[in-house]
Amino acid sequence: MTPHSSHTVGRKPWRRKGITGAQRHSAGLNIGVDVNLGIGMGPCVGPGKCMNMGAIVVRAARAAACRWQTRRMATHPLLLLPDFLLICIGWLLCRTTMLNRPVWEGVEKLVYYVLFPALLFQAIVRNPLQPMAALPLVGCGLLIVGTGVLLAYAVAHWRGVDPRLHASGAQTAFRFNSYVALALAERLAGTAGVAWTALLVAVCVPLANVAAVWPMARQGGQRTWHELARNPLILSTAGGLLCNLLGLKLPELAATTLARVGAAALPLGLMAVGAGLRMGALREGPQLAAALLAIRHAVLPLLAVALVLGLQLPAGQQAVLVAFAALPTASSAYVLAVRMGGHGAYVSGLVTLSTLIAMVGLPLALGLLHWLG
Question: pLDDT (tens digit, 9 = 90+) per residue, 288-300?
Fold first, then answer.
């Protein structure tokens, strides 16, 4: 408590002539917060100033809460353990039960054509976009994903890189697990964090999906623009953006149904990854795998930390953006590779390793942000 705040309490400024009961209540609340937090903001001489100082206290408290959540997340190394366990369950089911490969091929089609499109569409539509209100955040997100795309494409020019392996695996360097991103956002920054993450997903998913489909369409000898125009992930993203920008809202029944369909995408997608897992496939291109995972889990998180600190973004946005950059790669990367004739087993190994690395890397990235901030 500062001497000024003690003087404020002793003088009881609401006894001055002309101050109403409502102002006394506001002043009392303001001084109470002032004394409890030890901020010492001085006497309240009117309801407007009381409310302004109260708003300052609320903003300070929210920033402190975001920093506390960041510290808490940074010390929690098992955030992504459920995702890894789902991969293990898929692997066991495929190899030890009657749910063998033919069954999981049907699951892959279901995830690719129905579940993941529903998840993407619902995630984009449910939160109104306000890109101008968070322009620095959006710009940073696009820069992070764009950097991942450029670096992943550049690896193709390395000597000895198999074109088919690169076309299939490049997407793992810049795609991200949208479902995990939205789940983590609420823990990091509450409802505002969910809105910020939904905005990042809405603007970054189109870039990531187009960049993922492009090399596989070219490598497979398919008509690139034709494949882009009929890709279900791109179509669902474009549809969600259009509905959001037009202000269209789904009826409650449709929104609830779509949310439940989309909720099945992550568990079934991760189990499908496990069912198709052959870690030995990574031996076909170990240097390529190391480069792609280094981009995903080292370069992009470090870039995010540098951006948020350099631009001095609000504490909540800092945590959300760094977590976004350190996410595991999208589990749908495996399904996309299989459906487009790529090397599914190689991508499955990359997705599994990415999930394992992110279990450690994501808390470390948040810890680095807290330490430097």
Answer: 999 999 999 999 9
What the chain holds in terms of domains, given with CATH numbers, is: 3-60 (no CATH), 79-372 (1.20.1530.20)
Token pair recorded at residue 46: 């009117």
* Amino acid present at 76: H
Please report the beta strands in 280-332, taking only residues with DSSP state E, as ranges in sequence order. Answer: none
Distance of CA 328 to CAs 63, 79, 83, 204, 225, Å?
26, 11, 10, 15, 28
**pLDDT tens column, 43-60:** 444 555 454 555 555 555
CB atoms within 10 A of CB 310: 9
Q: What is the pTM of this model?
A: 0.72
- CB-CB neighbours of 98 under 10 Å: 6
Average pLDDT over residues 154-161: 93
- Say which residue the tokens 């001497």 belong to: 3
Type of residue found at 313? L
Question: Rounded to the nearest 5 degrees, what angle is found at the Cα of 177, between the Cα atoms of 171 and 180?
Answer: 170
User: Rounded CA gap, 335 and 347, in Å?
Assistant: 9
